[in-house]
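Researcher: Let's do a round of design. I'm pasting the structure tokens now; please hold your answer until I've finished.
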């Protein structure tokens, strides 16, 4: 990823000195010089930090927005990007330079082959127009013969195969992909998360007890280039029966048979085993009881626990807040402090700091939330939060207790005279003392404010995806993206 020229242009346009950028990212002078001269490609997390700090999309750093702004792009005959696939298929893209396109047009040369035709299935719609030769197309068992000048339009989620009946058949093929999740996402911060997840190495996901809702989510992850492989752990016959119309990426699926497992315990054990062995990168819950899955995760003998408390971090893009906000814990831990000990909260805070760093926040600002910013014996958690605030933190600024308005809004900070507080009004991470407060915030932000959100369960050896029936398709997809980036971060920092 060479971004030197684009980065120099952005710094000049925004009036930002190179020294200021270097200090913000923690680079030495040599590292910055090598990035600017395209001798060094930044890591994915560094791209996220760069884009966040400059307030632009990753696509701007990669130079794609210039092309996206062009609404008409010519592709000359000698400019086509060609691909040979085996000895009987060659295709050339007719619009590779138009960024963000919803249609993929190709010129395709298909030759007579001795081998059986390859069956394809993919979301979207497909159009074929025969320029020369004779083509046979089979769509969901129905056979069509196309001569020169004939065309065919069909739903490409149906199984289909193409065979040249002549020695050589040439056609125009157009694939309509529909809107990607990047177009459906409203906020700039979440767009950066999607862009970064697409650039990161694709992940392998272990789906325990697949059902229709979870299959739909992982299919979107495959379609958008986030997931390389999905292990379907459960009874294959049951999966094929309940998810027949959704099994559209045969090459990406790997069935892990578990039969006669009505309570899901064996499926949970096998799924965790795949993560423990390094075969899978992400663990996802399907139609299995959460308690059953988590018992396997935390098994002392075969689990993937690390000795740290598991916690949920919800990542929000809030209207009026120009950064991602990380909320913990609205879903797993009833209380921040176990046995009224300040040290028991360290794991939950560290978990949130880790995922924030994975998503490009180099030194997160952590607000320990309370109803009032003044420590008081009448609210014991305020004293524990004060104790945490006085602790030395290697990778974060931590302050508490802070009220909600003082954590997020600079105007409130100015009115109450807390300008010297390094976290007040600038919090990246909101830590709540009780699950009820976190749950209230979560639901009010999602349902009342319409905020976009992703959820990551961390503290184990790999991210865990626990989706809810009330989660939107976008939330499930953003959760896969954020979990993928956190998985990449774990491998890089191991």
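Researcher: That's everything. Go ahead.
Model: Designed sequence:
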């Amino acid at each position: 990823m060479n971004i030197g020229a684009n980065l120099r242009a952005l710094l000049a346009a925004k009036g930002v000195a190179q020294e200021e950028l270097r200090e913000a990212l923690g680079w030495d002078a040599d590292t910055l010089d090598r990035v600017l001269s395209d001798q060094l490609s930044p890591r994915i997390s560094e791209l996220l930090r760069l884009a966040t700090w400059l307030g632009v999309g990753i696509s701007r750093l990669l130079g794609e927005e210039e092309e996206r702004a062009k609404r008409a792009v010519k592709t000359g005959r000698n400019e086509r990007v060609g691909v040979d696939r085996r000895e009987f298929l060659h295709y050339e893209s007719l619009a590779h330079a138009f960024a963000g396109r919803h249609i993929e047009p190709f010129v395709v040369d298909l030759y007579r082959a001795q081998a059986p035709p390859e069956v394809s299935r993919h979301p979207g719609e497909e159009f074929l127009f025969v320029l020369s030769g004779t083509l046979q197309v089979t769509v969901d068992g129905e056979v069509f013969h196309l001569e020169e000048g004939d065309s065919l339009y069909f739903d490409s989620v149906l199984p289909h195969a193409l065979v040249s009946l002549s020695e050589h058949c040439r056609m125009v093929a157009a694939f309509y992909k529909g809107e990607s999740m990047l177009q459906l996402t409203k906020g700039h911060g979440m767009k950066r998360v999607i862009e970064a997840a697409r650039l990161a190495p694709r992940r392998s996901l272990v789906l325990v007890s697949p059902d229709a809702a979870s299959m739909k989510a992982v299919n979107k992850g495959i379609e958008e280039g986030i997931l390389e492989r999905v292990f379907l752990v459960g009874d294959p016959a049951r999966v094929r029966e309940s998810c027949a119309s959704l099994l559209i990426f045969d090459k990406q699926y790997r069935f892990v048979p578990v039969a006669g497992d009505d309570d899901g315990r064996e499926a949970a054990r096998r799924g965790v085993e795949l993560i423990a062995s390094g075969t899978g990168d992400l663990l996802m819950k399907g139609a299995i009881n959460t308690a059953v899955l988590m018992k396997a995760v935390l098994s002392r003998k075969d689990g993937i626990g690390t000795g740290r408390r598991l916690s949920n971090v919800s990542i929000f893009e809030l209207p009026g807040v120009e950064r991602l906000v990380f909320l913990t814990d609205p879903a797993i831990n009833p209380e921040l402090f176990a046995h009224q000990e300040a040290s028991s909260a360290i794991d939950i805070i560290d978990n949130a700091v880790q995922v924030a760093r994975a998503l490009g926040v180099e030194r997160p600002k952590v607000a320990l939330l309370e109803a009032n910013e003044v420590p008081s014996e009448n609210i014991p958690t305020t004293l524990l939060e004060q104790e945490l605030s006085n602790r030395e933190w290697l990778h974060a600024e931590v302050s508490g207790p802070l009220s909600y308005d003082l954590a997020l809004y600079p105007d409130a900070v100015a009115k109450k005279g807390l300008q010297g507080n390094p976290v007040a009004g600038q919090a990246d991470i909101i830590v709540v003392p009780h699950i009820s407060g976190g749950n209230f915030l979560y639901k009010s932000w999602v349902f009342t404010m319409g905020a976009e959100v992703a959820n990551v369960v961390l503290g184990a050896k790999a991210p865990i995806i626990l989706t809810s029936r009330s989660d939107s398709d976008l939330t499930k997809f953003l959760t896969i993206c954020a979990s993928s980036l956190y998985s990449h971060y774990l491998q890089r920092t191991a």
